[in-house]
Amino acid sequence: MAPRKLLYVALFVIASASLAQGGTAHKGSQPPDRLLKFYLQQQFGVNELEMVPEARAPVNGTNTGFGLEVVYEFTLTAKKSPQSKVLGYARGTAIAVNNTAASTTFFVQNVIHYDDGNLRGTLSQQGEAIFASLPWEFAITGGTGAFRNAYGFNVGRFISSTPTPNGNLITTYYEASVFLNH
C-alpha cells in the first residue's frame, strides 16, 4: 500500500474530527519545568517513506491496512506558518495497529530535536493515537541536552491541511509538558 493511502486516511479522519480546542497540558498537577509550544509541519508525499506494507487489507470504509509502517521527518515551527522560525524536527515511525470504519489507530514512536536558541536537546516520545479523537497525547519517555532525564506528555491537535504539488501539508499544534529529574 502506498504511503499516499495512509495520507488519505489521516486526512479523512482529521477532516471528520471536530476542531475542539485542546486543554492545557498540565491541568490539576504541578506545572512542568518546561512547556514547549510548537507547530508540526507534516509534509506527506515528501518527508515520509513506507517501510513495511500492510499485513491485512483495509476494512470497508478505510484506506489504511493493519501493519502499515512509515518512517518520517517533519519540521517544528514557532508559528503555524511553515515559513516561520524552525525550532527543530520530529523523526520517527508510525504503524497502523488497529483500523475500523470509524478510525485508524497508530502507534507512534519518535524523537523531537528541539532548538529555540535557548533550549537545545531531544525528547523521546511514544504512544497510540487515534487522530479522530482530539486532542491526542503522547508520553515523553526521556531526553538529552536541556531535556536530560525528561518525562511528561505532549498534547496535539489538528490545525489545517493544505494540498501541495507533492502531497499535503498537515499542520498540527503541540504543547509538550516536560518535567526534569533534577
Automatic annotation (TrEMBL):
<dbReference type="InterPro" id="IPR004265">
    <property type="entry name" value="Dirigent"/>
</dbReference>
<keyword id="KW-0732">Signal</keyword>
<comment type="subunit">
    <text>Homodimer.</text>
</comment>
<dbReference type="GO" id="GO:0009699">
    <property type="term" value="P:phenylpropanoid biosynthetic process"/>
</dbReference>
<keyword id="KW-0052">Apoplast</keyword>
<comment type="function">
    <text>Dirigent proteins impart stereoselectivity on the phenoxy radical-coupling reaction, yielding optically active lignans from two molecules of coniferyl alcohol in the biosynthesis of lignans, flavonolignans, and alkaloids and thus plays a central role in plant secondary metabolism.</text>
</comment>
<protein>
    <recommendedName>
        <fullName>Dirigent protein</fullName>
    </recommendedName>
</protein>
<dbReference type="GO" id="GO:0048046">
    <property type="term" value="C:apoplast"/>
</dbReference>
<feature type="signal peptide">
    <location>
        <begin position="1"/>
        <end position="25"/>
    </location>
</feature>
<comment type="similarity">
    <text>Belongs to the plant dirigent protein family.</text>
</comment>
<dbReference type="Pfam" id="PF03018">
    <property type="entry name" value="Dirigent"/>
</dbReference>
<dbReference type="InterPro" id="IPR044859">
    <property type="entry name" value="Allene_oxi_cyc_Dirigent"/>
</dbReference>
<keyword id="KW-0964">Secreted</keyword>
